[in-house]
Each structure stands twice: as C-alpha cells, then as structure tokens.
User: Fold these one by one.
Assistant:
Number 1:
Amino acid sequence: QVQLQESGPGLVKPSQTLSLTCTVSGGSITSGYYWTWIRQSPEKGLEWIGHIGASGKTVYNPTLKSPASISRDTSKNQFTLQLNSVIPEDTAVYYCARSRVAQATYDYWGQGTQVTVSS
C-alpha cells in the first residue's frame, strides 16, 4: 500500500519561501510514476503545481505567480516543493499525489496540509 504524507509549516509570511515535503512509503519515487504537487483553495479550486518524474525531470504550471521548484531526496524517498516569494493567493490546502500518466488520474494522495500566507 502506497502512502504519501505532506509536512511543512502551516503559516508563511508574504515574500518568503514556502517549503513542503512529501514522504512516500510503500513505493519508490524512482519507479515509473509522476510525483505531483496540487493545491486547492475556495477561489481557484484544484490547481496543478508541478511534478517530478521517475527520472528526476520536472514540469511546472506556467501560470503560477509564485515560482515553483520541485526536488527529491531518493535516500529518504521524499520529494519537496518550494514556492518562492509567496503571496496571499498561495493560501491553500497542498496535496502530494502520484499518477502513472503525467497530469492524469491520481491513484494515491496525501491527506493534505493547510498553508496560510499572512503577515
């Protein structure tokens, strides 16, 4: 059984960097899947942020106002999201998820973590 668990701060100040980590168990992040960050807010609904593939290649949503960066630590079986220069609009519940096809159906999700951007 694959499990994903998000972790990180719940409150970030505007212009700072948001950093979230997804810890994966029951499966390797170097296997043939896409490891994805998605967020949800009342204003925008579900929004795809980006993913890192099994090879380590990353793809990002070009419409994001705060630049995103996804990296991984294969020794810990974790992948990390960084959003730079965050703004209040980045307030959302952040999820990590897995899919076999890029930006397609996600078969495993983390429980989600609330992040609020506020001074």
Number 2:
Amino acid sequence: QVQLVESGGGLVQPGGSLRLSCAASGPIVKINTMAWFRQAPGKQREFVATSTSLGITNYADSVRGRFTISRDDAKNTVYLQMNSLNPEDTAVYYCNADVQASFYRAPANYWGKGTLVTVSS
C-alpha cells in the first residue's frame, strides 16, 4: 500500500520559515504530479503548490514568491519551503501525489494525513 507521510510542521513566528517534507513509500513504479494542499480552521482544503514529473511547478496566488516546491525523485520525496510566513498561512498541510504502484495498473491518487503549521507570535 502506498503511503505519504508529511513532516516538518510546527510553530513559527510571523516572518519566519519552515520546510515541509513528504515521503512516499510502498510499491512505487513512478510518481507523477506531487502537490501540497492546506486546510485552515473552519475553511475548505485549498491548493498550495504542485510539481509535475517534468519539473513544471505552479502555485496558488497567495503563496507565489514566498513558497517553493521541489522534489527528489530518487527519494520519492516532495518538499515545500515556506518563507515570510504570516498568520494566514496557519493550516494543516497535506501532501498529495499521483502514484503508479504497478506496471499493470493506472496511477492512483493518494493523500497524506497532514502536518500542522501554526504561525503566531
């Protein structure tokens, strides 16, 4: 069974930085798109950033210029470098990936359980 496990969340002061990681494990043939989403208290889950297997990235307008998504395909890991954090970035951050677990099956979409980021003084 493919699993995604996030790490790196925590409490940070406004203006600070954090780096989130998400490692995929299990039977993996190929990982296509990897992405980060977030869900703030009382709000719906929203898109943050995505990275395709070709290295094409895209960001939500609210984080563009402050957050950077990157991936290490050798480690089946995606990262989210978050700079200039503000209280509005407080949320549970979820990893999402399209993973092909077998040569005989189409890719499937997986979610991690999330890691909490709190931006507060």
